[in-house]
Amino acid sequence: MKKLHSIQVLRGVAAISVVLYHMLVIEKKYAGGDQFLPGLFRLGQSGVDLFFVISGFIMVTVTNKEGRENRPLDFLIHRFSRIYPNYWFYFFLTFAVWLLQPSLVNASQGGHFNFLGSFFLIPSSTLPLVLIAWSLIYEVYFYLIFSLMVGLDRIRMLISLLVWLLFLVNAHLFFGTPASPMPALILSPYSIEFIIGALAALLLSSNAFRRLPQIVLIAWAILVPVITPWLFTRFYSPNGAAGNLFRQTIVFGVTYGIWIIAMVSLEQRSILSFHPFLVRIGDISYTIYLSHLLILGAIGRIWALYFQHPGSPWDEGFVFPCMLAVIIFYSHIANRLIEIPSYRFFISLFRSKGYSDKPHPR
Question: What is the SS3 string spanning 202-219?
């Protein structure tokens, strides 16, 4: 299967959405009481939900590629090489900042963090050193569970995913969300979004939507971003509050699953195409995700010290577009100089040790 540009564009949408949400945080912290950015940017929190659904979709799509990642070990090697090397760069960068100025890192929890838990992305009672990495802990867990399904045919994989889904639903209904980090990870409703993405990929691979009129797919593709702000106000759980998280993952998992099905189907029918710049944003979305808090924080402090004009929106109208431009430019360069080389290095290292005999995917 060729590279799906629609998935890359949706990845870019998810990453930029998270950036816009965190710009609101920067505005509140450094704008001196001014409010320039629209409250709609709070919707960017759901970019993480979109990432989780896309992740499940990609896992099934990748493992269905003939001759690639059809062994659990190969799958984990490629997935971990994709996640960890690039993440470790920002982990040590943040750690260096913490050593020099602890108050700048994890201020909400007094600068406390679990070093090994943060480094290996293991659940802990404290947030990870790189705050945004909380979602990567779930990604690593998804990979570990899904590796048990690698090599299964579509029917067995479908059954396995449905059993996992049934387990999570029953766990929520009867036990709720545990307080301990590891049980909370295992029973987390966020896994539902991963499962929905995987189910969407299985449905598409079965050609279940081949005869669906294209007008229906176009309507789905347009309707989802239109109704998502309304869904956000009704169903989103601020900061993942346990009380409504289960409902949130169901609503946004299904919504984004439908969006993915529509976008990919339209691309496969050659009805939808994308500008290379939008595809490139998706290609660098992981680096955008990892780096944007550091960049926003650095620019925010410079802005507060030298360029802030309280009571005037003009400085914000200039600073925020600059923030977004710097994040995209930096991520484009860092993707080529850090993300891709580190991935290839780790893959070649595993291959040289005889742990993997598969070429790296694009």
Answer: HHHHCCCCCCCCHHHHHH
